Fold:
Amino acid sequence: MTNVRQLLVEGLSDALGFVVGALLGYGLGRLLGLDLFASGYGPTTLAAIVLIGLFGGGGLQAARIWRTERNKSDSK
Structure:
């Protein structure tokens, strides 16, 4: 049962970290005037896609770091 709980925490925290990071990237893109939903794949659309991907990956890594630190404090 503990293994199932651990896997659930891992999956949910990864998903939440990615989604929050991607939303932050989307918001920053909007502030910079980048339009993700513009027709075609112009430079601003591609820049918005890259920004969302970078922030989504950063959020995922932040969630994994948080989980590692949490596991360290739980084992003490």
Summary: DSSP finds two helices and no strands in the chain. The chain has one domain: 2-69. The radius of gyration is 16 Å. Residues 2-69 form one domain.
